[in-house]
Specification:
Number of helices: 5
Mean pLDDT: 76
Oligomer: single chain
Structural class: mainly beta
Number of strands: 26
Strand order of the largest sheet: 3-4-5-17-16-6
Length: 508
């Protein structure tokens, strides 16, 4: 582990049964086994698309095999296709003037759908085919940016949300606008707020649009996530309802499915009265109904919907610091979110969630314990030990350097519980051009000499139209992304996964 993980502090000790919805690192769970020294048995595999993870538990004598139930913080996951609709711009820095391409990127959504995005990190290059996830403003560079709301206003009042280019040209005083110059002018205006950059559009009409948008921009609120579940992890004893897990979505309806082996396991997804639930809307509360006497174990569910992702949602790299993007347009796209539950007949029953804290450059871990015995935990990167009493919750933090990868494991002191979180803290925009940047360097597509090489020239189509209507009228072609989550999508339905304990021999 790196020295960036030097800061660990307990932040909160309360009697809250289940922590808040959190999401900050791909997680891998390892079940408990007996009462041995958990520090000697750390799980290390991580999921690359999920940033929220839930603790897994099996009873004494059960296998110590790793459990990789699907984890996902919620919303859209997409792969960067490249810069598609653009024109030229110039940035003035203390190193001189740099030529860049300014305009719209496109992404392909995992499961189906297309996104159009603008850059909000001008000096950080993209990585070719980088995987991105929908992210709250607080977990990105917009969390510290007082002008974040103005950026959203620009997105809602310019191209492609306003696709009447003649009207946009008239309003801004431009003679005429093409898709490319409209995209460039919009991007330039955004950079002035996202990066405080001294940037101008090469095209005179694009520059007039940029000036108009910068002058007119007003503060706007952050858009609602397309789909999230809160909290992402619950725990408790068998024989009752574990939850609630609340659905937050802008979709008209989302799909919830029962366990794949519901007949064998008896675990159901219900409302607070124990009635089975297969559909959800914003605010729906879901519970895991675990029958009395059920074998100690863990289960995770997926809620899925098809919707247009709200304009203004941020997209950050899943495991790499690829250039941060902000959504300008969306087709109908597949979005999903996961939550997990663990249960046991006796002893501690922990659940762990995590959140990036961009304000303080750290990862905050919230550990809840709904068992009947205290749960003691520590981090593999430091030796402080924390105790969570039955029915209680505690939050502790690990400091992480900006643009640094982190690999942090929460470890049970008195048992074999361990859960690993991996990710990248990317909370601020790059202050200067990429190393080696010269006149003619394309910062936005990252052509400058840098480990983060980007979209190849052959992948970029200058001035392309490729518009996504504000209502989201493109096809949702399914794609297979390189994601390490066990999601099974059956039509529009969500899939519920149940992880049952493995044999002791399998875990040795």
């Amino acid at each position: 582990m790196t020295s960036a993980f030097s800061e660990i502090s307990a932040l909160e000790d309360s009697g809250i049964a289940n922590g808040p919805a959190l999401g900050a690192g791909s997680g891998t769970r390892r079940p408990l086994r007996g009462r041995g020294n958990g520090l000697t048995r750390l799980a290390s595999a991580a999921l690359v698309t999920g940033l929220v993870a839930a603790g897994a538990l099996v009873g004494a004598g059960a296998a110590a095999a790793e459990d990789t139930a699907p984890q996902h913080p919620g919303g859209a996951v997409a792969v960067l296709d490249g810069l598609k609709t653009y024109d030229g711009a110039k940035i003035k820095t203390d190193k001189g003037t740099q030529s860049v391409s300014a305009g719209l990127f496109e992404m392909t959504v995992d499961g189906g759908g297309k996104l159009k995005t603008y850059c909000i990190d001008i000096h950080n290059p993209t990585q070719s085919s980088a995987e991105y996830k929908e992210t709250p403003w607080a977990e990105s560079s917009l969390g510290k940016n007082a002008d974040a709301g103005r950026i959203r206003w620009i997105l809602e009042h310019s191209y492609p949300q306003v696709d009447d280019l003649a009207s946009l040209a008239k309003a801004s005083g431009a003679k005429s606008l093409t898709a490319g110059t409209a995209a460039a002018g919009t991007q330039v205006a955004i950079w002035r707020f996202s990066d405080k950059a001294d940037v101008t559009a090469v095209n005179e009409d694009a520059e007039k649009l940029a000036d108009y948008l910068e002058d007119k921009a007003q503060d706007s609120t952050e858009p609602q996530a397309s789909l999230t579940l809160s909290p992402a992890a619950v725990s408790g004893q068998a024989g009752g309802l574990l939850g609630p897990v609340t659905v937050h979505t802008d979709a008209a309806e989302a799909t919830v499915a029962p366990p794949a082996d519901a007949v064998a396991s008896g675990v159901k997804i219900t409302d607070k009265d124990g009635n089975p639930v297969s559909k959800a809307t914003d605010g729906t509360e879901l519970y895991f109904d675990v029958p009395k006497g059920a074998t100690d174990g863990t289960a995770s569910l997926t809620v899925q919907a098809t919707t247009s992702v709200p304009v203004g949602r941020v997209f950050t790299g899943v495991t790499t610091t690829s250039q941060t993007q902000i959504l300008a347009g969306s087709s109908e796209s597949v979005v999903s979110a996961q939550a997990a539950a663990t249960w046991a007949a006796k002893g501690p029953v922990p659940a762990v969630t995590a959140q990036k804290n961009c304000a303080d450059n750290r990862i905050d871990f919230t550990v809840t314990n709904n068992g009947d015995q205290p749960f003691r935990f520590t981090f593999a990167v430091a030796g402080d030990v924390y105790t969570v009493e039955p029915g209680g919750s505690k939050t502790a933090s690990v400091g992480v350097g900006e643009d640094k990868s982190y690999d942090i494991t929460v470890v049970g002191v008195d048992n074999d519980f361990s859960q690993n979180f991996k990710g990248v803290l990317d909370c601020v925009t790059a202050a200067t051009p990429a190393p080696g940047g010269d006149e003619g360097t394309d910062t936005q597509t990252g052509a400058s000499p840098s480990p983060a090489t980007t979209v190849a020239a052959g992948d970029v189509t200058g001035g392309g139209e490729g518009d996504l209507a504000a209502t989201g009228g493109s096809s949702a072609t399914p794609v297979i992304a390189g994601v390490a989550v066990a999601l099974v999508v059956l039509g529009g339905g969500a899939v519920f996964f149940l992880r049952r304990k493995k044999s002791a021999a399998a875990g040795q």
